[in-house]
Design brief:
By secondary structure, this protein is α/β, with parallel strands linked by helices. The protein has one domain: NAD(P)-binding Rossmann-like Domain (Rossmann fold). The chain is about 40% helix and about 15% strand. The chain is built from eight helices and seven strands, in the order E-H-E-H-E-H-E-H-E-H-E-H-H-E-H. A seven-stranded parallel beta sheet has the order 3-2-1-4-5-6-7, sandwiched between helices. Helix 4 packs across helix 8. The longest helix is centred in the middle third of the chain and has 23 residues.
């Protein structure tokens, strides 16, 4: 039976390498991105490495509720089943921006969009079980500070260091979302895992004031992992047999013991509050 995977943020970086690896494993892969030009180039690169694989492209801006709903409709129209959903898309913006729906754009792209897309594909994933959802987060979540469930999506001025704090908040939201979703899907056959891949040389921070030469130099040192290295860990959670019976794994490729733990992750009340507020913001019914 043909296995089908959808990977967001697949036009470059980790997402493209995840799509490539899954295609090599025989998956039919839906590659989701914002840019049709970059998406077509990425799909061509994956097809070149896996010429027998079925590769399709989908386009949409995850910061827009309307575009996410349109994206989900196209995926549901195209695929009769869904074995793997990899929520990988993300941005790190230098300056505060407001989404078309009035939310902080980084929060909308990194959390609310994936939350809505997963909710809209949830029934197909359950019907296709055993299936898996992988949420690509970041160890930056540990620096998020206090999270207000009622106001986490409100736009505002970032100020000095503000973009890093908001980015960390979105990654904490990712981890909380994955943990709560794992609990809510327990017993359905859908396994949910989160992964913090560590520092990776991708285009994620292309809007940040870091010279490209600096990034290129760091990419050649052990300080940054390559997208291919990070993708291996994602693919293990998404496709390896060892992860098909458990759920709720939160993996990190960095030694987490060296980093301050976030008590927020162990707070079930916070997880529920974030979930319920996210449902309200994206317009999903409570489940």
């Amino acid at each position: 039976m043909e296995k089908i995977a959808v990977v967001t943020g697949a036009s470059s970086g980790i997402g493209r390498e995840v799509a490539r690896a899954l295609a090599r494993r025989g998956f039919r892969v839906g590659m989701v991105g914002r840019s049709e030009v970059r998406g077509a180039d990425a799909a061509a690169a994956v097809r070149a490495d896996a010429p027998d694989a079925r590769i399709e492209t989908f386009f949409g801006d995850l910061s827009s509720r309307a575009e996410v709903r349109g994206l989900a409709e196209r995926i549901l129209d195209r695929y009769p089943r869904l074995d793997v959903l990899v929520n990988n898309a993300g941005v790190h913006l230098r300056r505060a921006k407001v989404s078309v729906d009035g939310f902080d754009r980084m929060v909308a792209t990194n959390h609310l969009g994936p939350f809505l897309l997963t909710g809209l594909l949830r029934d197909l994933l359950v019907k296709s079980a055993p299936s898996r959802i992988v949420v690509v987060a970041s160890e930056a979540y540990r620096r998020a500070g206090t999270l207000d469930p009622a106001r986490f999506a409100e736009p505002g001025v970032y100020g000095a260091g503000g973009s890093h704090r908001v980015y960390a908040r979105t990654k904490l939201l990712n981890v909380l979302f994955a943990a709560e979703l794992a609990d809510r899907l327990a017993g359905t056959g859908v396994a949910v895992h989160a992964l913090c891949p560590g520092p990776v040389a991708t285009g994620l921070g292309r809007d940040l004031p870091v010279p490209s030469r600096t990034g290129a130099l760091l990419a050649r040192t052990p300080l940054l992992r390559t997208p291919e290295q990070a993708a291996r860990a994602v693919v293990r959670l998404a496709a390896d047999p060892g992860y098909d019976t458990g759920t709720g794994y939160h993996a990190s490729v960095r030694p987490a013991r060296l980093l301050r733990a976030s008590p927020a992750v162990r707070d079930p009340a916070l997880r529920r509050a974030v979930w319920e507020r996210s449902e309200q913001l994206v317009g999903l019914p409570s489940r």
